[in-house]
Amino acid sequence: MSTRSHTFTEPAKKHLGQHFLHERGIIDKIVQAVDPKPGDRLVEIGPGQGAITFPLLDRHGELTVIEFDRDLIFPLTEAARAHGTLEVIHRDVLTVDFSALAHNTGGDGQIRLVGNLPYNLSSPILFHALEHAAAIRDMHFMLQKEVVDRMAAGPGSKVYGRLGVMLQAYCHVTPLFDVPPGAFRPPPKVDSAVVRLVPRAPDTIGITDPTMYSAVVRDAFGQRRKTLRNALSNLCDADAIAAAGVRPEARAEQIEVADFVRLANSLAAR
Ligand code: SAM
Question: Is Acetylation included in the keywords of this UniProt record (predicted)?
């Protein structure tokens, strides 16, 4: 079945990060990666002209989408009739309460998020989703490849940093496949990649004070070439770092996520 409709007449809007997917093979790979099962509550962020929306609807029968561009709402709603039951939320995704959405959708009380995200908003959307992690079963997002690389990086990698350490504490991060610019209209300037994020069970995260965790990670990578002793001097001294079993002379890029968690918990307990 066609994924596009002649009713979408508006040109892509740059300020909304609109790059519409047209490569059938990539769209199929995203749907396969999501692999919706009966009863799943799927929520797509930024459906655009429906490239992923309609194949997901064909497969699953129902879907909720969150779209900010008012010019897309009517054509999306119209075109969706041929594919299944589409609930359209016309809002800025950053103002959507995912926990309330999950609560209202029935099922097991969790939603599954999907989206070819507007790249200018990808970090705010990720952190907004993390605030509602307990309401989210998993996320499949298309992002800039460079962002996916940073999300998944570990100690020793040049791109290991604040984004990866923050995300990996709360989620399992699995890069799935890369997507070239030519798969979109208009093509973005950068390569893209699809990533799967699965929030960890709340009782396995182990962070006792999320504000302290954020502060430790922010300061540690704020000056990544400095030793922890120097980078964290506003938060603690070398003895407090050592008391958590972390070397004060190490640099942030050498420290595992689990060590950051232990350090933040130890500082929070003082
Ligand atoms: N899913 C479509 C596709 O793959 O072809 C469109 C993806 S396009 C990269 C990003 C989409 O996010 C656009 O439809 C854009 O209008 C929408 N968008 C941008 N900012 C948004 C926001 N704050 N809240 C919800 N949707 C937004």
Answer: no
> Rounded to an integer, what distance in angstroms lies between the CA atom of residue 119 and that of residue 20?
12
Does the N-terminal peptide bond of residue 155 adopt cis geometry, omega within 30 degrees of 0?
A: no
Tens digits of residue pLDDT in 95-125 = 999 999 998 876 678 999 999 999 999 999 9
Q: How far is the CA of 62 from the centre of ligand 1 (A)?
A: 19
Q: Are the CB atoms for 192 and 179 separated by under 8 Å?
A: yes
66 CA: nearest ligand 1 atom: 25
Q: Closest Cα to atom 3, ligand 1: which residue?
A: 20
CA 70 to chain centre: 23
Quick one: average pLDDT of 53-63? 97
Q: Which strands, in side-by-side order, build the sheet including 85-90?
A: 85-90, 62-67, 42-45, 111-116, 136-144, 192-199, 171-179
Q: Tokens standing for 43?
A: 């929520």
Largest CA distance in the chain: 66
CA angle 51, 55, 56 (to 5 degrees): 105
- Residue numbers in the known binding site for S-adenosyl-L-methionine are 19, 21, 46, 67, 92, 116
Name the residue of 23, 30, 54, 116 whose CB sits within 8 Å of the most ligand 1 atoms, as the mutation to test its pocket. 116
